[in-house]
Amino acid sequence: MKKLCLLAILVVSLRPLSGQNEQVVIESSEEEMDTLKFSKLLKTYNDVIRVHEEELNIFKIDLLGPVLYGLSNWGPENDTVKNNVLRIAYEQKFRPDWSWIVGSDVQADRKKVRDVRLNAGVRYYYNLNHRILKNKSANNFSANYISITSSGRTRPGEDDYHLSLNLLYGIQRRIGRMGFVDFDVGLEGVVKAYSDRETGIDFTSRIVLGLAF
């Protein structure tokens, strides 16, 4: 009788341990499924921004500005809001994590061209080493950057000029085969201001969305 009691106690005491082992197996399976889903999602994201495709230069055309310009023409006839009707840029890598960039912006309202700007500067893609360690390409311009640019602007038909030096933090990503988005924020140090502006330090931000070749 004592042997039967001891056997019953042993069986009862082992049942919780068996249940705990089953629970651990289920959790492990769920974690593996979550990891697999994340890996597939990451691969899809990397394919979209083309992280493994080599690019050493890129020519960019903004489409967001012209769309906003077209929409502004639907407003009242006396609307004088300026929008970018043309914004282009060319960027060239001279090291895996460094590039130089030049570009031009043309702003206009529905009456005439109001502002023409030329930009030139350098970009340091500071997180590329981290991306390389993750087996991602350093040559596709999809990374975060710090940039120093100089900018010269003029108002057509007027003897008025504007010169500035900008310190920017930005994020650029390729989108599919021919798309890109470029967003930056920072400080603009105005060296020579338009006649209706003052020299000093201003906050600046910009978003460009369009085609890249």
Structure description:
It is a single chain. With 213 residues, the protein is of the alpha+beta class. It is 29% helix and 45% strand. It contains three helices and eight strands; from the N terminus they run αβαβββαββββ. It has an eight-stranded antiparallel beta barrel with strand order 1-2-3-4-5-6-7-8. It is globular and about 70 Å long.
Descriptive tags:
alpha+beta, 3 helices, 213 residues, 45% strand, 29% helix, 2 domains, 8-stranded antiparallel beta barrel
Number of domains: 2
Order of helices and strands: HEHEEEHEEEE
Summed up, the helix count is 3
> In oligomeric terms, what are we looking at?
single chain
- Counting helices, strands and paired strands, the structural category is alpha+beta
Reconstruct the topology from this structure.
Blueprint: H1 2-48, E1 57-62, H2 64-72, E2 83-95, E3 98-108, E4 113-124, H3 128-133, E5 143-154, E6 161-175, E7 179-192, E8 200-212
Antiparallel strand pairs: 1-2, 1-8, 2-3, 3-4, 4-5, 5-6, 6-7, 7-8
